[in-house]
Amino acid sequence: MAASNSKGVIELRLTDGAQLFNNLDPFPFRERDLSAEAEHYIVEWAEELPKKQPIEIVVHLQSSGSAPDPAAHIPAAITGWFRTKERDEARAIRQLFHDGRLAFLIGLAGLSLCMALIWLLTQAFEGAFMRVVQESLVIVGWVVIWRPAEMFLYDWVPLLRRKTLYRRLADATVTVRTG
Q1: What is the rounded CA–CA span in Å between residue 115 and residue 110?
Q2: Deepest in the core among 15, 38, 74, 130, taking most CB within 10 A?
Q3: How much is the pLDDT for 3?
């Protein structure tokens, strides 16, 4: 790529504008779903571009197909699709943190229960076997809290990465060239 302010270009060469969309989707261009292959291709190329670089998507059409003016509909359909994907990822992040809070409360209750059992067993019994039971309860308590910790520490990162990528694609300049 040239200068850092230049756009990263993703080019699609199609025989017809309909190739871009899901064949089973009956809606007009603006609301249609992108085909899985087209989305995969665009996302894969966008992932290769520098993170700060704006994106330009250039769709080369050999023919306009059945749509009267594909240049008017395709850009809105592409950016709208990725805007919807961005909203879906934002919703997934919110849901993850909601589920994480619930899992944390459950995990904290489980850890507290294990610690209380350890304390009760320490007061009532002694011996090597009881020490094994106590240590086992410590392990169980930490395992119960592990998943909520994992959710808050790691699980949100790929969701945020995809949301950011979809935002970049939704903000992309889309150009359609026919001929």
Answers
A1: 9
A2: 74
A3: 42
Alpha carbons 63 and 14: distance in angstroms, whole number? 8
* Residue 7 to residues 49, 168, 174, Cα–Cα distance (Å): 9, 11, 12
Sheet holding 8-14, edge to edge: 8-14, 55-61, 173-178
**Once rounded to an integer, what is the mean pLDDT over residues 67-76?**
70
State how far the Cα of 45 lies from the Cα of 49, in Å rounded to an integer: 7
Tokens 């992309």 found at: 172
Confidence category of residue 127, pLDDT binned at 50, 70, 90: confident
Token look-up 């169980």 returns 140
Of 107 and 26, more confident: 107
CA 33 to CA 43: how far, in whole Å? 15
pTM of the model: 0.79
Name every residue whose Cβ is closer than 8 Å to that of residue 134 and which is 6 or more positions away in sequence: 118, 121, 122
